[in-house]
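The instructor's notes for this session suggest beginning with a concrete chain rather than abstract definitions. Hand out the sequence below and ask the class to guess, before any prediction is shown, which regions might be ordered.
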Amino acid sequence: MLIIVLIFLMSNAFAQTIGAFTDSRDGKTYKTIKIGNQIWMAENLNYVTEKGSWIIQGDSSGKLFGRFYDWEAAKEAIPAGWHLPSKQEFEILCASLGVAELPNSDKLYKLLVEGGIAEFNVKLTGSYNDSYGKKGQIASFWSSEESWLSRINPFMEFPWRLVLRAPNYVNIGKGAESDEGFNVRCIKD
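After discussion, reveal the predicted structure:
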């Protein structure tokens, strides 16, 4: 009984489910969560873009894993009133969950993955073209800004990304090539 009460208190200290958001463009509804002062979609975005977005095998509608986007499509797919998180907003998310120093192994991973106390519900979807990992091993989420790697190679864009890797790794990656296919988690304006 005491353990159940402690788990309930811990979950309320980190996150508060506040409901859902329905995208007026296609009628899809997403669970939302408040963590700290931020409101996040607690599911991967699944809006179909004209180009630069894909679903993976075994999820014909994107309902299970959401869609995978290249960076340009990710920036265009965001519904009104929401945006792609910045690197700083990813850092605030982690700090709001009690982990300010990254990379982190264990605590933050357990909070963010599907079934975790924070109810952020990250599924390890892999990436669309598997160059950064496969389904069940990793999840990556685009940010809105380029990393310092873009200044080194002006012919490529390397956006920041939030990365979770099994069994217990979380970091804000120094960039990935913008044509990779990663998931999107939107944050409310």
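Then share the key points. The chain has five helices and eleven strands. The two ends are 39 Å apart (CA to CA).
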